[in-house]
Prior knowledge:
heterodimer; A: mainly alpha; two-stranded antiparallel sheet; 6 helices; 68% helix; 5% strand; B: alpha+beta; four-stranded antiparallel beta sheet; three-stranded antiparallel beta sheet; 9 helices; rod-shaped
Amino acid sequence: MRIASTQYHATMESALQRASGAVEELMQQMASGQRYMLPSDDPVTNVRLSRLTREEAGLDQYRSNITALQSRLQQNESILDSMVHDMQQARELMVWAADGSNTSADVNAMASSLLALRDSLFYTTNTRDHEGRFMFSGTAVTAATIAYNGAAAPGARYSFTGNNGVQNVVVGNGITQAANVDLGGMETLLNQLDEAAATLAVPGANVNNPAVRTIVVASLDGLDTALGSVAGKIAGLGGAQKILDTLDGNHANVSLSNKQALITLGQLDYGDAAVKLNAYTSALEATQKAYGKVSALSLFDVV
Amino acid sequence: MTIINNALTGSLAAKAALNTTSQNVANVMTPGYTRQGTLLASVFLNKGGINPGDGVAVPSLLRFSDGYKSQQMWQAASNLGQYSTAQPYLTQLEQVMGDDTTNINAGMDIFFSALNAASVEPTSSPLRQQVITAAGAMAQRFNNLRQLLATQRQSVSQQRIAVVDQINELTRDIAVLNQKISATGATGQIPSGLADERDRKIDQLAGFVGVQVIDQPDGARNVALRGGQPLVAGSVAASMGIQPNPDGSQTLTLAFAKESFKLISGNLGGQLGGLDEFESKVLMPLTQSIADMANGLATKVNTQLAAGYTMSGAAGGPLFDFDPTSTNAMLKTSAGLVGQDLAFSSDPTLAGNSDNLLALIDLKNQPVPVASLGSSLLGDAYTQLVGKLGTDGQQNDASLTTAQTVRDQAEESWKSTSGVNSDEEAINLVQYQQMYQANMKVIAVANELFDATLAMFR
Lengths: 303, 458
């Protein structure tokens, strides 16, 4: 084929363009560490990468929810622990009170301790969070967990004004975990303690009196029931945290495999890139040398 | 005397050939220059007797051109123009939409993460406020993309106006050149320079819009669009026009002689066709898809919120305002909304209830109708759109590479016929110089013969 003189230059120019383009792309890849610079480099892989990134974002959020939830559960647990402590003290007091050898002065003194414990339990049950919302009212967070009505007779002054509603936290795709515990049932104990304290505070109170004894025994039973109930709740909270730990572990595993897939699919193989870069640069050098030689050849130099 | 005459014609012919060679050498780098050659023919006037001939003549100059190769080059120019025009737009879109840290996908991640985080403590004001902030940030990403699409459409329109202006200028030039060529063609040979000039203009024109070129017997070249509508007929040029429409689109018109008609877009080829195709097949559908996504998201979220109750027990109000007509504020959060107004509860009396919040979180997995995708999950629609854009970009890129290769090849092929090779010209130079010198020598010999004859009489 006949070759025009400018053809050498044109061929050289397009060869250099192509090689420079390829080298530039390689440099971009190497600078960013990513195999694909644009979705059009590989649309299908790009969709895969994007979906993996979405899943990763979801997992990140679930894991951060789990961390936040665990701290909330631990807070609940420590509050319930302090209540157990109060109830055990109250129980010791009532066991002592049930001893028939107590004088009425002893019993009167016990009543004031019991009142203090009753109030402590009442305030703890009505614990509020930083924004003033009741922590143990179920989902009725604006209402006090236990309401106190001083006008009513002892034994009926406390009433539960919360509910048993559950606040569910998303901790996985379609998995929720309750974040709150309610303290429904505490009103019964508080009423019993209230009644017992009132009875014991009466001057000359005698625990051997069957009426008094019935009340004392009833509050002992009530304490046992409440202790069982709160301990059950603490156990539930512990169990939930255990489950959350497992779930977090699962999320971590899935996240790890996602990250590995992200690296396999999207990260640049530097060795491969370096080899390619070498190949392109030597091809470029060779082309430039060939051009230098060929373009120096001209018949005009010899005629 | 025949010797001197013959030598004279020879030296004149050699001079003409040297002239041609010098022109070729001078234009070795001129783009679109068609090399010329000198046609030599021996002269034989039959005067009877023993006569070897009467020298040499230059009946005409040769123009080394191949019409078929020019046609190939113009077709390649149209394809190259078409794909190279769309490429920068596509690349820009891909860069913006594909960046997984700043795109809508990441914005939706942030929004749904904020909702998820709020489920840990649904009554917490900072967590609720964060939902509104994240919603605003996400809406801003929708708006940024919507704005980019609007800007691209604007530049497509402006580029189209510029292209049409250039097409009109080129068709006028070609018509004038046709006229000149026909006029000189009638008197003799077509001037090669004018033909080169016209072919260069046609080549430029082919880059702007796909053309068909038909040679006329008088040397003129008629140029028509791919659909057959005339651009240049002899010395008459058509005039292309643009009518802006109220919906932001543009209508192309073509006025030829006293007729004016609308050009139906599609298969125009060249830059005009590239703009057309990008606008109708990528830009407009994508704009619609993004608007559909924003609308679907806003509607779903607002509907779900309307089914719930705020912290104070009031019925839930909307979180998003969707305005399909706005290019810079298509999606925004409702003005004056505060965290407590988010209707996360499903019971007006229970502020701590989070059932409606859980329903909101689940919206990500619900289908919305999106143009050019059909029904797709809210959380996946954007990924699919980017995937589709990537496929479009890949296709255009591949077509562009092919078009570039075909054009390079066509140029090479054209040059192999019409381009100047300086080595060849160097040989011509030597040969014709020798021819000239030889003829001069013949004259000297004839002179000596003459002198010898005269010397006899001294």
